[in-house]
Amino acid sequence: MHSIEELEQYAKDHYIPIARKALVLFLIDLVKEKGYKTVLECGSGIAYTSIQLALLDNVYVDTFEYYLPRFEIAKQNIKDFNLEDKIKISEQDIMTAELGKGYDLIFIDGAKRHTIDHFNYLKDRLNEGGTIVVDDIDLKVTEKIERARKRQKYERAVRETKEFFENIEGYIATYMPIGDGIYVVSKK
Ligand SMILES: C[S@@+](CC[C@H](N)C(=O)[O-])C[C@H]1O[C@@H](n2cnc3c(N)ncnc32)[C@H](O)[C@@H]1O
Questions:
Q1: Does residue 24 have a pLDDT over 60?
Q2: Which 8-state DSSP code applies to residue 113?
Q3: Is the Cβ–Cβ distance between 86 and 61 less than 8 Å?
């Protein structure tokens, strides 16, 4: 795929979750405003967000996708956009990744029931002055889930995630109603 519109259409046609447009715009503004250069993403999907961030000057993205078919599509998309030198994609569970360096922006957009684990695993990789953005905080996501048991699990995960960020110590966590709801987290 060679355009952002094509990525959006593909995601729609194949029911693949991608970040909301408003969130991508927020991330782009954040990166530009703060002069961030390095991004770590948990959950590449089809590389919709990582491509848009890596199109910015001097921005480099490390992204992880553990679902092989999606990883393959993301890898091809990165190639189609000629961003192979700016996006490093790994077919791996980010929780098993050895992350040697620090990042200016960490975007957590993986499996929602593991958001707290992802945060705890990745938080020490944040550079001084950096920001962690956590996606899909709101219940809107859960409304789409039809099976009652699955919905209950989701709702519990959402509740626990909110409680976690509302009570977090040592960080400033701000909820913002962007896309499906995000927390913007920085170190105190
Ligand atoms: C909502 S999609 C990501 C969308 C993408 N961030 C974007 O902005 O377009 C979530 C993706 O995260 C992947 N994922 C979930 N947990 C993961 C983990 N621990 N490590 C790597 N990938 C993960 C899923 O397979 C799924 O493709």
A1: yes
A2: G
A3: yes
Domain of 48 in residue numbering reads as 4-187
Q: Which residue out of 8, 18, 61, 65 has the highest number of ligand 1 atoms within 8 Å of its CB and is therefore the one to mutate?
A: 65
The pair of three-digit structure tokens given for residue 16, joined into one six-digit string: 């693949």
| Number of structural domains in the chain | 1
The structure tokens listed for 132 are 């962690």
Residues in the chain: 188
Burial environment of residue 188 by CB neighbours within 10 A (0 to 12, 13 to 18, 19 or more):
exposed
What was the pLDDT predicted at 18? 95
**Contacts of residue 126, Cβ cutoff 8 Å, sequence gap at least 6:** 102, 103, 106, 132, 187
**CA–CA distance, 138 with 106 (Å, rounded to integer):** 19
pLDDT digits (tens, 9 = 90+) for 55-108: 999 999 999 999 999 999 999 999 999 999 999 999 999 999 999 889 999 999
CATH of the domain at 31: 3.40.50.150
144 pLDDT exceeds 80?
Answer: no
Pocket probe mutation, ligand 1, options 24, 67, 77, max atoms within 8 Å of Cβ = 67
Residues 36-64, mean pLDDT to the nearest whole number: 98
Going by the DSSP 8-state scheme, the letter that residue 37 receives in this structure is -
Dist CA 52 CA 50 (whole Å): 5
Helix, strand or coil for residue 101?
Answer: coil
Residue 141 has pLDDT above 70, yes or no: no
